[in-house]
Amino acid sequence: MPNNMTEGRPIRQIVLFAIPVLLGNLFQQLYNVVDSIIVGRYIGVDALAAVGSTGALIFLVFGWIIGMTNGFSIMIAQSYGAGDFKRLRQFAALSFVLCAVMAVVMTIGLLWANGFILRLMQTPEEVFKDTYNYIGIMYAGLAITVFYNMYAGMLRAIGDSRTPLYFLAIASVLHIILDIVFINVFSMGVEGAAYATIVSEFVSLILCVWYTTKKYEIFRMGKEDFAIDVSRIWKLLTMGVPMALQFSVTAIGTMIVQAALNGMGPLIMASYSVAGKIQSLVSQPYVALGATMATYVGQNRGAGKIARVRDGVKQGTILAVSFSILSAAIIFFFGDVLIKGFISEDVQNVTKTAMIYFRTVLWFYPFLSMIFIYRNSLQGLGDGLMPMIGGLLELAARVVVIYFVADRLGYQGICMADPFAWILVSVALIPVYYKRIATIQDYVLHSHR
Q1: What are the record's GO terms for cellular component (predicted)?
Q2: In this predicted model, what pLDDT tens digit does every residue of 201-210 receive, in sequence order?
C-alpha cells in the first residue's frame, strides 16, 4: 500500500519502510551469494574467482542502472509528496521511455565491448572464458534489470516498500532452485548461475508490472502522459545522470582495485570476492536505511516539511551507525565461520586471506553507514551533483591507495583502499547536507511570508 511519509512519527515511518527494503536487499544479495556458494563448492576456486571477478563490472553496469532509476524515482516521490498525481504520471511515463533507450544502448555496447573490458582488467587466462560467458549472459538480460529497478523505484517512491520485497522473495527461491538445477543437474557451469539470475529476475519484473498496473490508479498512464516534455525529461536526467555517474565512478574505483587483485592470482581473487559478499550482507541495514532516506526526504521535500527532514535524517543516522557497529562485531567474532561457508577447497588459505581484509576495514563501518544516509538524503533533496562528486572523491581515494600504498604493501595495501575512501567521502558529504538543508529551509520560510 502507498505510505505517506509526510505524516506520523519520523522514526516509526523510517523503520516501517526500511524493514521491507532491508529484507528485499538481502534477497537480492542472496542472488550473488548463492551463485558464489554453489559455484565455489561444486565447481571450484577458479570458477568462484571467475564469478567474483565480475563483481566490479556488475557494480559498474548495474550501479548505473540503479542510480538512473533511483534518480527518476526521486521526482516521482517529490510529486507524490506534493499531491500532484498528474505530474507523477508524466514523470513515470517519461522514465519508461528513457529506460527503454538506456536498455537498448547499454546491451548492444556492453556485449560488443565485453572481451576488451575483461582484457583491460587483466583477467587471468585460466578464468577468462568463464568470466566472459558469465558476464555476457548478464549483459544480455540488462533490459530486465532496467525495468525491474524502474518499477520497484516507482513503488518505493509512493512509500510501498513491501511489494518489491514479496516479489523478490519469490524470485530468490526460484533462483536457488534454478542454480542447483542448472549447475548440478545440467552441468552448465558458471553460465548456469548467470541464467538462473536472469530468469528469476524476469519473474520478479513480471510480477511488479502486473501488480503496479492493477493496484495503483495513479500509475495508469495514458497516451497524453507519454507526450514529450523537454523540461520534464531534463529534470529526470538532471537527477538520474549524476546519480548514475556517482555509482559508476565508485565502480570504476572498485574495478581498479579488482585489476590490482587480478594480478595476484585466483586465491587472492577468490578470497577478496568472498569477503566482499559477506560485507555486502552485513552492511545491508544501513544500505536499506539510505534507500529509505531518499524516499522519506523526497516526499517531505515535496511537501515543504524541512524541519521533518532534519528530524528524520538525524534519527536515521543514529540507527545506521548503531547497525554499523553491530556489523563490525559480527565480522570480528564470526568472520572466519562465515567465510568457510563459501568454500570447500583451500579453506585455510582463503579464510586467512579474507580475514586480512576484514581486520583492516571493519573499524571504519560507521563512516560507510553515514555515506548511505547523507548521500541519499542529498538526493532526496534534489541534489544529484554532490553525491556524484562524492563518487569522484571515492574514485580518487582508491586510485591513490592502489598506486602509492598497495605498491609497497601488496594485498594489505589494497585492503586499505575502502576505509580511506569511506572516510574521505563521509567527511565531504555531511557538511554539504547541513548547508543544503539550511538553504532550503530559509527559502521555504521566506516563500511563506
Answers
A1: plasma membrane
A2: 899 899 998 9
